[in-house]
Amino acid sequence: MQQVEAAGMRVSRIGLGTWQFGSREWGYGDDYLREMAPALLRRAVELGITLIDTAEAYGPGRSEQVIGETLASLAPEARSRLIVATKFMPIAPLEGIVARQAAGSRRRLQVDALDLYYAHWPNPFVSARRVMQSLRPLVESGLVRRVGVSNYSLEAWQAAEAALGAPVVANQVRFSLIAPGPARTLVPWAVSHHRLVVAYSPVGQGMLAGDPAGATVRGFRALNPGHAARVRARIAPLIAVVGDVARTHGATPAQVALAWVLHHPNTVAIPGARTVAQLEENAAAADLALDDAELGRLTQAAFEAADRPGTTS
Ligand SMILES: NC(=O)c1ccc[n+]([C@@H]2O[C@H](COP(=O)([O-])OP(=O)(O)OC[C@H]3O[C@@H](n4cnc5c(N)ncnc54)[C@H](OP(=O)(O)O)[C@@H]3O)[C@@H](O)[C@H]2O)c1
């Protein structure tokens, strides 16, 4: 598995997204949490995936819990190679509240310190400066090893760094062929400042995975405007290009979507998976090399689709 290093943190270029673990909105059922979630985690570790992505909001708490229980059964040496990233909602700037949120995540994950702790979303009522000030004591006391932000603009990311007085090592954002914007904004800054862009929803929550009709869409996706038939119609030309490139390589559309994200330097993708077969397919995408002409076609189709009104949710 290819790795990337930035700001002293080394992770696999494909991580494992775990919003699906215990989250009713995905509609995967209780067996998925009990049986599939631990199986996915164990297989991810076997495949050399070292970045596991979760949040207190997933489940809520159930995703962190199952990760803690499963990773506790790993050999300490295998566990020590992993970066388990989690997130808190900055609901209030008070240090005590953030400290309690971090303590809850540490307890559920069964760890003494959080490897990477993200502010999940910007809060319009709490400045980036206040959020970072409330994290600083956790960093100074060693309870949080690294700080990240999520869904931050470049300006807000830079403001967060200034307020923390230390690197905010990663910004986790929606980044895919359906949401290509970070390629032009966040990635160049991450490259010049040795930071990471962590791409969530990198296979468009399934829309880039070769199911343009949405036949398998269930759970929140059935109601989400981002998955509506009119959106699928607007991205149809992009999906056709993805399919073409996939056929040339004997790859799947999901793999092409991931390989496009990963051709950007200082970038990691964290796809979620419903099955072990999807996870294995996604992990293999780290080794899929697309040529310049293919990347050019995909980028052009992605920005054309993004410029069509109403394409993104
Ligand atoms: N920071 C944030 O605000 C934020 C927001 C969203 C997500 N995230 C994180 O990012 C992770 C990934 O994002 P996401 O789950 O929204 O979207 P995603 O990774 O683009 O989509 C995951 C879904 O796509 C389908 N899929 C995955 N691999 C596939 C393959 N190889 N072939 C066919 N279908 C495949 C599966 O659904 P079906 O098989 O059911 O179609 C899977 O549940 C999350 O788990 C979470 O950790 C963070």
Summarize the helices and strands and which ones pair or pack.
Blueprint: E1 3-6, E2 9-12, E3 16-17, H1 30-46, E4 51-53, H2 62-72, H3 76-80, E5 83-88, H4 95-109, E6 116-119, H5 128-140, E7 147-150, H6 154-164, E8 168-174, H7 186-193, E9 196-200, H8 229-234, H9 236-249, H10 253-262, E10 267-269, H11 276-284, H12 292-307
Parallel strand pairs: 3-4, 4-5, 5-6, 6-7, 7-8, 8-9, 9-10
Antiparallel strand pairs: 1-2
Helix pairs in contact: 1-2, 1-11, 2-4, 4-5, 5-6, 9-10, 9-12
Keywords:
single chain; 313 residues; alpha/beta; TIM Barrel; eight-stranded parallel sheet; two-stranded antiparallel sheet; 12 helices; 10 strands; globular; binds NADP nicotinamide-adenine-dinucleotide phosphate
Regions with pLDDT < 50 over 5+ consecutive residues? Answer: none
CATH architecture: Alpha-Beta Barrel
Structural class of the secondary elements? alpha/beta
Number of strands: 10
Query: In percent, how much strand structure appears in the residues?
Result: 5-15%
Strand order of the largest sheet: 3-4-5-6-7-8-9-10
Gyration radius, rounded: 19 Å
Q: Give the class-level CATH name.
A: Alpha Beta
CATH H-level name... which superfamily?
A: NADP-dependent oxidoreductase domain
Average pLDDT figure:
92
Domain module tally: 1
What is the string of SSEs from the N terminus onward? EEEHEHHEHEHEHEHEHHHEHH
**Helix share of residues?**
40-55%
Which ligands accompany this protein? Answer: NADP nicotinamide-adenine-dinucleotide phosphate
Distance between the termini: 32 Å
**What's the CATH topology label?**
TIM Barrel
Shape summary = globular
Annotation field: number of helices: 12
The biggest sheet, with number of strands, parallel, antiparallel or mixed sense and barrel status, is:
8 strands, parallel
